[in-house]
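Please fill in the sequence for the structure shown.

STRUCTURE ENCODING:
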C-alpha cells in the first residue's frame, strides 16, 4: 500500500515518518521523500492516528490525486538539486517527465496553476538555496559552484542569485550571518 506525505523533504523527515510508522506497528518496504510503501494495508484507525501524528510535525498525509502529483514534482526537484551529486545532463523538463512518467506540459500546467509559480522558477529557487549552502561550506569558489549547478557562467549564477535573494553571491559570502531557508518553506 502506498502513502503520500506532503512536506517530506529531508532525511530528518524520513526518520520522523519511519518512527511514526513503527509506533503504529506499520512496516515499510520503501521510504523516500514524499512516498511510503507499506508491507500491509492500513486500517482507518491507523491512518487517522498517523495523519494526526504527522500533522503535529508539519507533515500531511495526502489523499487528493492532484496534491500528490504536485508533491511528487516537488520531491523530484528537491532530490535532483539537493541530494544528487550531480544535476542531470538532460533538460530538467525531460528529467522530471521521465521520472514521473507523465507529459511535461501537463505537469507544468498543473504545477503553475496550483503553486502560482512555474516549475522552472521553483528549480531556480532550489538551485539558489543549494548555492547558498555551497557558499557557506566554503569548499568551492563561486565559479566552481556555478559549474556544479550547471550555470552557463558565473555571471548567470550571480544574476539569478541577486534576482532571488537581492544580494550578489560575493556579498552573501562576505556576510557574518547568512540565512538559508528550510527546504519545507521553499
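FILLED IN BY: designer on duty
SEQUENCE:
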Amino acid at each position: 500500500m502506498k502513502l503520500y506525505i506532503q512536506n517530506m523533504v529531508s532525511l530528518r523527515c524520513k526518520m520522523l515518518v519511519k518512527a511514526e510508522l513503527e509506533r503504529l506497528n506499520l512496516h515499510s518496504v520503501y521510504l523516500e521523500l514524499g512516498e511510503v510503501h507499506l508491507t500491509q494495508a492500513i486500517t482507518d484507525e491507523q491512518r487517522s492516528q498517523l495523519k494526526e501524528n504527522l500533522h503535529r510535525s508539519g507533515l500531511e498525509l495526502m489523499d487528493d490525486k492532484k496534491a500528490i502529483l504536485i508533491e511528487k514534482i516537488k520531491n523530484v526537484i528537491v532530490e535532483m538539486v539537493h541530494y544528487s551529486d550531480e544535476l542531470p545532463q538532460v533538460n530538467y523538463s525531460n528529467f522530471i517527465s521521465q521520472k514521473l512518467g507523465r507529459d511535461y506540459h501537463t505537469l507544468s500546467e498543473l504545477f503553475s496553476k496550483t503553486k502560482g509559480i512555474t516549475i522552472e522558477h521553483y528549480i531556480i529557487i532550489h538551485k539558489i538555496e543549494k548555492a547558498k549552502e555551497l557558499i557557506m561550506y566554503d569548499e568551492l569558489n563561486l565559479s566552481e559552484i556555478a559549474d556544479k549547478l550547471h550555470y552557463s557562467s558565473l555571471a548567470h549564477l550571480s544574476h539569478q542569485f541577486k534576482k532571488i535573494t537581492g544580494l550578489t553571491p560575493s556579498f552573501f559570502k562576505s556576510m557574518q550571518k547568512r540565512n538559508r531557508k528550510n527546504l519545507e518553506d521553499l
